[in-house]
Amino acid sequence: MLTSVRSLTAASVFALSAAFAAPAMAQDDDGGIGVEVSANVAMVSEYRFRGVDLSGGEFAIQGGVDVGLPAGFYVGTWASSLDEQTVGYGSTELDLYGGWAGEFGNISTDVGVIMYIYPDAGPGDFDYVEFYGSVGAAVGPAEVTVGIAYAPDQDSLGSTDNFYIYSDVGVGVPGTPISLTGHVGYTDGFLTFTTDGEAFDYSVGAEVAIAGTPLAVGVSYVGVEGDGIIDPGGTFTSDGVVVTLGASF
């Protein structure tokens, strides 16, 4: 079965890695002591991760805080509500992460580690660790990112591992507050709803920044495909439209 994981701003169009997006560096300067803090909050019509619905088709509340440290290091936390009965890991997901991000000319890089915690899950092992890395670059008017995430063998993953690779593309529409996004990813390992442990996920979306406010509204079409999907009735894996209202500070 799939263990719930997120894409750091989760399946909102803000980081349409509904897949995996490494945490962005914080944006709000603290006054010159080398530490920057930012926060985000969102309401999404569904919490989707790597194409899979983790909120039972219901609204989810999400939010997090990032702290940028000197020399490109950062730490952060993020949380989302879950559908307790559908997902089976309680009503809350809490993620703790840290890493390093840097730029080399027009190339951006990010590496780190994230711990997924389910504080009110039932008996058993559910919490686990995943390592991630990504490289991004401007390609014409678009920003293209390629990344990987690897969760090593852990009890909570059935004493096996999971590998994920993805690519994200984003482009702003000139003269407008609209940005367009696309994503495709491939999972090999424990974190799928398939009999062979392989799945593809994808999304396309658009986001509109509301002028003069920290708010943005987004909509995306999200899906997941694989052979032998173990999901009678499409409870977790049916394609769907995700609407997001979020803010960054």
From TrEMBL:
> According to the lineage, what is the superkingdom?
Bacteria
Which species? Aurantiacibacter rhizosphaerae
Q: What is this protein called?
A: Porin
InterPro entries the record matches: CHP02001 (IPR010239)
Q: Which UniProt keywords apply?
A: Signal
A Pfam family that the UniProt record links to this protein: Gcw_chp
Question: What start and end residues bound the annotated signal peptide?
Answer: 1-26
